[in-house]
Every structure is written in structure tokens, then in C-alpha cells.
Design brief:
Blueprint lengths: L1 E5 L8 E4 L5 E6 L2 E6 L13 E3 L2 E3 L6 E3 L16 E2 L1 E4 L2 E4 L9
Antiparallel strand pairs: 1-10, 2-3, 3-4, 4-8, 5-6, 6-7, 9-10
Length: about 100
């Protein structure tokens, strides 16, 4: 498990980038906390720098959108999903399980 931040340090609607085996973006969406690969599958851009709306993040580079729950892209130009990671909240801290859940098509 990787410690991402304190729950209070990540307000709803915000995201942070966490360095792990691969960079991971952690989001506090209206439906809870989510973690996905930080790098867009279309081109090298940080998804933590993107725009969050509901459970979707829009890449800041070319506006590809990803579902935080599944990692699947919801529009072009991205065609490939990003990996998702389980998030655990314990004692006011957000942790990310760095073992990714591989998306099954």
C-alpha cells in the first residue's frame, strides 16, 4: 500500500499525483476516492492535471475522457483504458494498493 495523503488534504473535486511503481492519480470525486494510472493512454499527459466531473476525468492535453471506476476511455482520441487501483481509507488517510486491477475488455 502507498500512502497518498490525509483525507482532509484532498477536497472533493481535486486530484493528486502519487509516485509509485508507476505514477498514480488519486481523485476525490463526488462518489468517493478513486485511483488510476496518472499517464493518459493516448499521449504522455498527467491525468491528475485534468478536469474532474462526476466520476470522469478529462485529459488536459487532447480532451480524452476516462471513467474513474473502470479506467475505460469514454471518447477519442484515447482508445485504450488506464489501470485502476483499489483505494483504502484508514484512520483519516488515503492509501492506494499499487497492485493494479487489469481491465478486462
Amino acid at each position: 500500500m502507498i500512502r497518498a495523503c490525509a483525507v482532509t488534504d484532498l477536497p472533493e473535486g481535486e486530484a493528486i499525483r502519487v509516485d509509485g511503481p508507476v505514477p498514480i492519480a488519486v481523485f476525490h470525486a463526488e462518489d468517493g476516492f478513486f485511483a488510476i494510472d496518472d499517464t493518459c493512454s493516448h499521449q504522455d499527459a498527467s491525468l491528475a492535471d485534468g478536469w474532474l466531473e462526476g466520476c470522469f476525468v478529462e485529459c488536459p492535453l487532447h480532451a480524452a475522457s476516462f471513467d474513474l471506476r473502470t479506467g475505460r476511455p469514454t471518447c477519442l482520441p484515447a482508445k485504450n483504458p488506464v489501470r485502476t487501483y483499489p483505494v483504502v481509507l484508514a484512520d483519516g488517510v488515503v492509501y492506494v494498493d499499487a497492485e493494479a486491477k487489469e481491465e478486462v475488455a
